[in-house]
Design brief:
The chain has 225 residues and is an alpha/beta fold. Helix content is 36%, strand content 24%.
Length: 225
């Protein structure tokens, strides 16, 4: 993962700036002027893991940079953090869509942790022990699930369905396929039982937290990232 830092030239390259702090922590960093073009072909091939806008006292400039970042396809889903002074915090508005706010002057370790948390919050991954889809984290070994850090109580059947669809993101499965592959052919219940479990999952997890979609006339799928 590398980090893009956006700001005025005199801001991003100052000795106490975010670029220098992150470089000293071993991070890969690139800098860009607030008004430079950001739609470079190399960004599409290798987008940053996160963007830090060093607005400092210029909150309006930070907002303008945010608008330009989101207009670039390769950066539309990358987490963006805004770095401001204490005096500038009061000018940040609720509708500002930054993933996090970082105070200047920096505490380098805190800056790094906030960037990694923002990046982790938007990323999706799968390992033998954990799966992350959207805001949902599935602990396979512990048979537990969380949404936005909140534990969610699932039945055995609900957990099995969530795990299966999360492990096969992007693929559509019919109700009968889900019955056979998730619970086995000996599971007692008709194909409409799947609808009940899907409805309960959506209620418990929140429809805006997990991309579990109905494909009309076919079945269900978990959207791929």
């Amino acid at each position: 993962m590398w980090i893009l830092i956006v700001g005025s030239p005199q801001t991003v390259e100052r000795p106490e700036g975010g670029a220098e702090a992150l470089r000293q922590l071993g991070c890969r960093v690139r800098t860009s002027d607030l008004w430079d073009r950001l739609d470079h072909p190399e960004l599409a091939a290798d987008p940053p893991g996160a963007v830090l806008i060093e607005a400092v006292d210029e909150v309006d400039a930070g907002r303008a940079a945010m608008v330009r970042l989101r207009a670039v396809p390769a950066l539309s889903d990358v987490p963006v953090l805004l770095a401001v002074t204490v005096n500038a915090i009061q000018r940040i508005q609720p509708q500002d869509a930054f993933d996090d706010i970082v105070l200047v002057p920096y505490v380098p370790v805190e800056l790094y942790v906030r960037i990694r948390r923002a990046e982790w919050g938007r990323s999706e991954f799968e390992s033998p022990e954990r799966i992350k889809v959207g805001k949902v984290v599935i602990d396979v070994a512990g048979h537990e699930a969380w949404v936005d850090g909140r534990a969610v109580v699932l039945t055995q059947q609900e957990f099995a369905l969530l795990r299966f669809l999360s492990s096969h993101r992007g693929r559509v499965f019919s109700r009968q396929q889900l019955l056979d592959r998730v619970w086995g052919v000996d599971y007692y219940g008709g194909s409409r039982t799947v609808d009940i479990h899907v409805r309960r999952l959506r209620m418990k997890l929140g429809t805006d937290k997990v991309p579990l979609r109905t494909v009309r006339g076919v079945g269900y799928k978990m959207d791929a990232p």
